[in-house]
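Side project, low priority. Logging it here so it doesn't get lost.
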Amino acid sequence: MKKTQETKQKKTVKITQIKSSIGRNKNQKKNLLSLGLKKIGQTSTIVFNNSTSGLIQKINNLIKVEDNKKNAK
């Protein structure tokens, strides 16, 4: 029962790719794929934790990050 309560309380963010991965180094391309982004305009909702925070910081010029409004209860 505790596990279901913990998953409800985790913060999620909505990430949208706004720039192309063409001409970027292979690590930035891998970071985009690991966040579930393949095309410009594609959106992915992920759980915000330390590992995803690091990925977001490495490619912050290629993406737009928003708080997930559904999780703001």
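Brief comment: The helical segments are 2-9, 26-34, 50-58.
Revisit when time allows.
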